[in-house]
Amino acid sequence: MVGLVGITPEDAVVEIGPGLGALTREIAAIARRTIAIEVDRGLVKLLGEEEWPGIVEIRHQDALKADLGGISRELGPPNVLLGNLPYSIAGRLIAALCSERNPYRRWGLMIQAEMADRVMASPGDAAYGTLSVWARLWTSPQRVMELGPGHFEPRPKVRSTFLVFDPAPDPPLIHDVGLLRKVVRTAFQYRRKTLRRALASEFSDLGDSFERAEVDPKRRGETLSELEFARLANAMVMEPADDRDPRRTRS
Predict the structure, then answer these.
(1) 31, 33, 45, 218: which is deepest, by most CB within 10 A?
(2) Cα–Cα distance between 106 and 148 in angstroms, integer?
(3) Is residue 251 part of a domain?
(4) How far apart are CA 155 and CA 231, in angstroms?
């Protein structure tokens, strides 16, 4: 995992879920500094009884509640996020990380294979959903390793996948991220309905948003690409001259 995510001596690393510290030791052998976040009080106690180099800090925190952006700023760039995620939090954490404000240069996450399928899915795939859209908007994920239950202790009942995420090189300009999230969530909540019917359940006046976004309102949400969702959300709040191409021009 350390090799696949490409940690260098210049990197600081935030590790989520260190467990008994096996991965933490491998990280600490390379990274300039490591902060390991563990929610289990018993594991924090066990980790605290070991001798760690001064560059390693164990923090008793819930990763879903931790200020990962603040920790990144505390460590200073460049930094990497790495973790073997509990399956119960993987979807929520990935959704939170998939943002244009994510400060990590790269992050690698070991997750349930089924969850990885959702992250990597394309429009029209059975697994395509809100998590797929977030990942495709703001990251370039890669599936780099598959592991069976026998590689873990205790042995889970599912297969696992290690994904490496890089920030998207040219993410779209989103006028209102909150609106976009609501549009995408609604489209998939009523995935059997056309877009017009699905969105009408949450938005009272769609006006000519579909026309300006160049999206057929008779399509279903599961067929839209991430950029089509971005165009549609932008068209719902922006002037016609501004909503054709949601991509940001970068210098």
Answers:
(1) 31
(2) 25
(3) no
(4) 44
Question: In whole angstroms, what is the distance from residue 82 CA to residue 109 CA?
Answer: 6
d(CA 106, CA 95): 15
CB of 47 closer than 8 Å to CB of 34: no
Q: pLDDT over 70 for what percent of the chain?
A: 94
Q: Are residues 76 and 50 part of one domain? A: yes
Mean pLDDT of 74-78: 95
Residue-level pLDDT at 241: 45
Q: Tell me the pTM.
A: 0.86
Strand pairing class (106-112; 139-147): unpaired
Residue 52 has pLDDT above 50, yes or no: yes
Tokens of 120: 């990597």
What CATH code is carried by the domain that includes residue 33?
Answer: 3.40.50.150
